[in-house]
Amino acid sequence: MRKIIMALVIVLIFLGFSSLAQANSVVKVMQFGDDGWIMGDTRHNGIVDFVSGPSTPHIGTGSLRLATTNNNPDKAGVAKPGDFGGLSGISGSYWWYRTSSTNGFQAPAFKFAIDTDSNNIPDKILVYEPYWNHTTSDFVWTEEVFNQDVGKWWLWDSSTSTSYDGYLKTLRQWLEDSTYPDFHTALSAGNIKALLFEVGSWNANTDGYVDKFYISLLGYTTDFEPPDTTAPEITFEEPEDKSVHCREINLRAVCNETCDYINFWWRAEDESYSSASKRYHYVRKDGTEFEWVLDTCNAEKADGTTYSMHNGKYYLYAAGKDLAGNWARTLEIGITVECNKSEILMCTNVPGKGLENAPGLQKPFNPKSQAGEHAGKKD
Ligand SMILES: [Ca+2]
Ligand SMILES: [Ca+2]
Ligand SMILES: [Ca+2]
């Protein structure tokens, strides 16, 4: 019984920690495309950028910048499109910062784009604006927190091009309270098609920043950061420098961050690396460990054809890019291919057919056969 209780306690602790880990997980967004974020409703001279700072963000070292110039129609926005479901039960938070705004109150707004008539096109936008919820200040990171009953939102009805700034309601009121104009039925049936952060329009000279965005719909925190400009460190782990091989050579390279691909290059001592020789092989996947097998017998070149590598010295290196496109390569390593005559015979006489079909090899072994020597000449 005691064991069972202990096991239960362990399971409960494990479940507790795993849900905690999930709630605390962080996804970095450093450029468009990361985690599905794209340029949103940006107009005229609107500025959208992934930057360092400002000041000390509450997660990482950077943030998402949304800014307008002195041109009133400017608008700056990002979007994360998707099928996020209904408005019910949502909670979230984000931090923002502002260095300036002509009107003194505009701050980055968070919005839901909602499709209420099932045509997959958003027709209602619910807008959370910091300044409709409290006074706002320059030069201070400020957190916004909302849930079903905390935080007031206004509605933009894009089907009628009407804004309902006056009807500031909580998410629950928008869904359930019919004392206001009757959007709640549509919104209750609506599907969120995009998450938006925007500044403008008619908020000239607003220099805003967003970071540390959490929303229950995603279940993780989004950390906006400046683009990665640091090259990955790629380590050639196999084969060992100066090692000797015949047939299959395991190639293994490791990236110190997620890499987009690794390209393994090789050359014989008397060759040079060149894309024309096709002696390279891409391993394309997002990951940190990249492996491929170079078979000296059927060395597969980049164009898919194979050739037999003669005995001798070879040089190899691995090159690759991280997800942001920063390129790096390893130093060259040297290996020796050294196959004996019977291995070469098997190699050169059996192109892709397998030993059992090799001409002559089905016969009993004849010690007087000169096959080995012929094979030696072919070397
Ligand atoms: Ca950040
Ligand atoms: Ca629609
Ligand atoms: Ca990098």
Quick gist of this model?
This protein has 379 residues and is mainly β.
Textual characterization of the structure:
With 379 residues, this protein is mainly beta. It has 2 domains: 26-224, Galactose-binding domain-like (Jelly Rolls), CATH 2.60.120; 234-349, Sandwich (Immunoglobulin-like), CATH 2.60.40.4070. Helix content is 15%, strand content 42%. The protein has helices at residues 2-23, 130-133, 171-176, 184-189, 341-349, 371-378, and strands spanning 26-29, 38-39, 47-52, 62-67, 75-85, 92-100, 109-115, 124-128, 142-146, 153-157, 162-169, 191-200, 207-215, 220-224, 234-238, 244-245, 248-268, 280-295, 299-300, 306-307, 312-322, 327-329, 333-337. The strands form 4 sheets. Strands 1, 3, 4, 6, 9, 13 and 14 form a 7-stranded mixed beta sheet that branches. Strands 2-5-12-7-8-10-11 form a 7-stranded antiparallel beta sheet. Strands 15, 16, 17, 18, 21, 22 and 23 form a 7-stranded mixed beta sheet that branches. β10 (153-157) and β11 (162-169) form a beta hairpin. α5 (341-349) packs across α6. Bound molecules: calcium ion (CA) (3 copies). Residues 228, 230, 232, 257, 322, 324, 326 line the site of one calcium ion.
Helix and strand pattern: HEEEEEEEEHEEEHHEEEEEEEEEEEEHH
Q: What is the average per-residue confidence, as pLDDT, rounded to a whole number?
A: 88
Write down the CATH class of the largest domain.
Answer: Mainly Beta
Q: Kindly estimate the percentage of residues that lie in beta strands according to DSSP.
A: 35-45%
Shape: elongated
